[in-house]
Amino acid sequence: MPANLTEGFPPSNGTVQTLDSPTAICFPTTFPEVEEEKWGSFYYSLKTEQLITLWVLFVVTIVGNAIVLFSTWRRKRKSRMTFFVTQLAVTDSFTGLVNILTDIIWRFTGDFLAPDLVCRVVRYLQVVLLYASTYVLVSLSIDRYHAIVYPMNFLQGEKQAKILTVAAWSLSFLFSIPTLIIFGKRKLSNGEVQCWALWPDDSYWTPYMTIVAFLVYFIPLAIISVIYAIVIRTIWMKSKDHDESVISNCSDGKLCTSYNRGLISKAKIKAIKYSMVIILAFICCWSPYFLFDMLDNFGLLPDTKERFYASVIIQNLPALNSAINPLIYCAFGSSVCFPCSERRARDSRMAGRERTERHEMQVLSKPEFI
């Protein structure tokens, strides 16, 4: 869910102005009382650059995720990892359409010109995508946990991926319901008509922001961290046991081979690496945003111009998440973006091997990643 600066700046009466952006739904940012021309000059000097940045992010997000969706759709043999890749691409695509594009439109119109119902629906969908972008990652982590820690149950429970995804989206729609009540079309103190919170004063932001921050970021991040700590430990233990088994076989004069059905396949390891990079990208894009706004709303940041400059950069970082995910998909599996070339390369490699080796590769490297 993108976070971007608003069209407004402190009004001429010197009152504190709150940012109004599609992602400031959860975390409003206030600025010190300064002269209007200073903030206005700074903001409008960067207005063109901000619009260009948003357009670039929008195009990259839509085109990149469209390629991923098309590539996964045309695959005849789909794995569970492919299913989660599709879910992430769908979430990122809607993020581009509902959040980034909406922000671009509001920067041109200034005021919110649509009816109150549209305001509530748009805000609701934005928060749904905020939750979904995190909960789908949690679902992916749980699925990878079962794939590594309980491989036999994992193979027998093919409906698990769909159940996890349905649960992720259901919780996202459920937790976003308060948005329909909290937000609406209203006139701000500076005369602008915006889609904004309807509560009496800004003191309500602190408890609301705290609850959303924990539901969206801190609790899911803790769950993901614990899951992958267990996964990494399991991989290390199984690899260690396998190495000891191979050494033992060789010392006894038996045929030395790395073939072992209990060993985690390379495809699963690749899936784990891919999942971790996706989650690391999410953390890098969202951590500055959440930490900055948490500190700001609790009054722990000084009222200086540096704080305003930092907010311009930090509140635009989350938009990068939906744009770089397709690049990660392609980096970890050429079959995502180039399924035909990957298939030809695989067939060429298989043609040069002995029949027994091909059989072993089919057993060990069952397509699990893409």
TrEMBL record:
Membrane disposition: Multi-pass membrane protein
GO biological process: positive regulation of release of sequestered calcium ion into cytosol
Signal peptide (from-to): none
Region (Disordered): 349-370
Amino acid composition bias (Basic and acidic residues), ranges on this chain: 349-361
GO terms, molecular function: neuropeptide receptor activity; vasopressin receptor activity
TM ranges: 52-70, 82-101, 121-142, 163-184, 204-231, 271-292
Annotated GO CC locations: cytoplasm; plasma membrane
Keywords of the record: Cell membrane, G-protein coupled receptor, Glycoprotein, Membrane, Receptor, Transducer, Transmembrane, Transmembrane helix
Record domain G-protein coupled receptors family 1 profile: where: 64-329
Pfam families: 7tm_1
Compartment(s) of residence: Cell membrane
Major localisation: membrane
Physiological role: G-protein coupled receptor for neuropeptide S (NPS). Promotes mobilization of intracellular Ca(2+) stores. Inhibits cell growth in response to NPS binding. Involved in pathogenesis of asthma and other IgE-mediated diseases.
Similarity comment: family membership: Belongs to the G-protein coupled receptor 1 family. Vasopressin/oxytocin receptor subfamily.
Protein name: Neuropeptide S receptor
Organism encoding this protein: Rousettus aegyptiacus
